[in-house]
Amino acid sequence: MDDGPQSAEPPLGWAGQPQPAPDARALLVEVAKGNEAAFEQLYELIVRPVFGLVRRLLRDAAQSEEVTQEVLVEVWRTATHYRPEKGGAMTWVLTLAHRRAVDRVRAEQSAADREAKVGSRSGARAFDEVSESVLGRLEQRQVRRCMSTLTELQRESVLLTYYRGYTYREAAELVGSPTATVKTRLRDGLIRLRDCLGVG
Amino acid sequence: MSNEMAGLTGAYAVDALTGPERAEFEHHLAECGECAQEVRELREAAGMLGVAAAEEPPAELKGRVLHEIAHTRQEPPTAQPVPIGTRKARATSRLATRLAVAASVVGIGLAAVFGVAAWQSQQELDQAQQRIEQAGERGAEMARLLHAPDARIMHASEGGAVATAIVSAELGKVVFMSEHMPAAPEDKVHQLWAINEQGATSMGVLTGGDVPVTADMPGDTTKLGVTTEPAGGSQQPTTDPFMLLSLRA
Ligand SMILES: [Zn+2]
User: Fold this and answer.
1) Shared domain check, A95 and A29
2) What tens digit of pLDDT does each residue of A10-21 get?
3) Which of A64, A90, A106 is the last residue before a domain boundary?
4) What is the CATH number of the domain that holds A101?
5) How far is A179 from chain B (nearest CA, A)?
6) Residue B41 CA, ligand 1 centroid: distance in Å
7) Total number of domains constituting chain A
8) Which of A12, A97, A98 lies at the smallest CB-CB distance from B48?
9) Which residues of B touch A50 (CB under 8 A)?
10) Chain A residues lying within 8 Å of B44, measured CB to CB
11) What distance in Å separates residue B32's CA from the closest CA in chain A?
12) Which of A179, B54, B153, B244 has its CA 20 to 30 A from that of B97?
């Protein structure tokens, strides 16, 4: 996501904010200097996506809150390593959040457990569940529209890995496709999403 | 770009690579600008899915976070950033921190045993110190072990949990430390076992909270294993180990 000042159009993803979004990139750079007020402003920009993403992955409300707090404190602690020229602040934060939440979900639940929670070994079922609880609630029309340009297997591969924390091998098992296929579809799907969203 | 590696950008961008495959890809990333650029772009695309999942957190979270950051030291900007995705290395370096703290608590230098240890932050250091202090009088035993001429250090990781054991066959002792070990389910405990060809011998129940454990170890032990057992522990393991640490490198 381009949250830099140089963006010509309002950044994507700031639903309900037609006015230019506050500049997360500049705030994060300020945070790196130890500016607590900047952190408080940045907090408002990032906490909902972070919490929402962590919640998708962990499901458990208390755990999600705990991991969200860890992630936000890590943003503060490691902001000094953020390189604005390498990408947007939101991407940086969400990359961190995703990694932490995936760490946690893998540490606490085996793939089999996660699958059992979904209540079915069927990939289609797992996907329905994901798309209902997540995609169905996407407010960003653009993301929804772009996801719909993916093939079904591309979409499944992206959703199972990103929102559910499966490895691509686990995802392959879930959808009953060869791992090499899912690996490729995952990349193709993300590339298609990137091109459709016009990011990167 | 080239080869099979380029096909892994997508999986890597969404943390769907694990183990050796990820390590290998990161190695490649370090020297392939093209793949690095693609990973950045795909992360940005995936990040939009994160943004799209936005949800209102509990209101009291903000106060807690602001309070915590006010007491958290930032990493120095000059420090080498931890490469994205090297979870294991990072976790291991935290263990290194804890070992360093253990050593300082019991008054020995650790460099000879572990090489250079670096801590991530003052907060982590404090936490590590606290945990080592919880280990109390076992500190002295740890020190003896660290001093043993045949002391060896081994790591294993499973999911997000990392285990480190300092072993001396000569003393017949082991210090076992975990990091991010998931809490045992209710009415269950984690139990540590010394495993050899004859079977498993209990080395005790882990108290949780990643507190280091010092235990006697039968001489012919080849592996350490951690299982989940009913509260109070078992005579013999009733489940398969979810973490195994081989003592034979
Ligand atoms: Zn490459």
Assistant:
1) yes
2) 333 333 333 444
3) A106
4) 1.10.1740.10
5) 11
6) 14
7) 2
8) A12
9) 50
10) 1-2, 87-88, 91, 194, 199-200
11) 15
12) B244
CA of B7 to the centre of ligand 1 (A): 9
Could you tell me the residue range of the domain that residue A33 belongs to?
Answer: 23-106
Which residues, by Cβ under 5 Å, contact ligand 1, an ion? B 1, 6, 32, 35
Q: How wide is the angle at C-alpha A64 spanned by C-alphas A60 and A65, nearest 5°?
A: 125
Tell me: do A99 and A51 sit in the same domain. yes
Q: Do A52 and B66 touch (CB under 8 A)?
A: no
Residue B100 confidence class, pLDDT cut points 50, 70, 90: low
Q: Indicate whether A65 pLDDT > 90.
A: yes
Within-domain flag for A193:
yes
Specify if A67 maps to a domain.
yes
Instruction: Please tell me the distance from the alpha carbon of residue B179 to that of residue B194, in angstroms, as a whole number.
Output: 19
What is the model's pTM?
A: 0.57
Q: What is the pLDDT of residues A77-105, one digit of tens each?
A: 999 999 998 899 999 999 999 999 999 99
